[in-house]
Model the fold of this input.
Amino acid sequence: MINKISHWEEQIDLLAQQDYVVIDNFLETGTLDQLVTFFNKKIAEDKLDKAAIGSSTDKKIIEEIRGDYTFWIDKQRDSDSLELFETFDEMKSLINRMFYLSLSDYEFHLALYPKGSFYKKHLDQFQGRNNRMISMIIYLNESWKEGDGGELKVYPKDRDDLIIAPLLNRCVMFRSDKLYHEVLTANCDRKSVTGWMLYQPSPLASIPGV
Ligand code: OGA
Ligand code: NI
Done:
């Protein structure tokens, strides 16, 4: 569950105005603890895989763009151990209400950036994959400090670039199709859960009268 966030409307307005928003102290302690435990378990079980980009399977190309390891979370398989689905459901309905959108689903993965890794400047919508509407990241770095690296740098249009520290329980949301962003080189392991709110046009939408 998410913490009671005062001024939700303001946060979502910010997302609309500047294409991103940063919300600290996002998850309730219980949900956060559960997520950290889940993450550590997946690391111990060696379940994280080298991330891919689009359809590329060329390891060298991928290495030059992103160096993180990911574990895709599965609603059926993982819902017993994670309250996070409720959080994403809550966010989905909130965003739908505020933006008059009809987000239909979401997908998310755990991400581990080992020391020395980064993710070059990019958009989260790419060719052949344009149904990601809102990107949502929750950071899980308990003792992050200046010098640890792995900050998120965002490039909002017509505004100054901004560097965001990946602090524990900080949530960053942004427009997947609009906001260029990058992960600066991590100087020690950097953990997060990253999700995308998806838009699936209804197959009935184009039929007149439906
Ligand atoms: C991504 C991404 C940013 C972050 O996974 O597409 O840009 O701060 N992540 O983890
Ligand atoms: Ni991204």
User: Anything to note?
Assistant: Residues 204-210 have pLDDT under 50 and may be disordered.
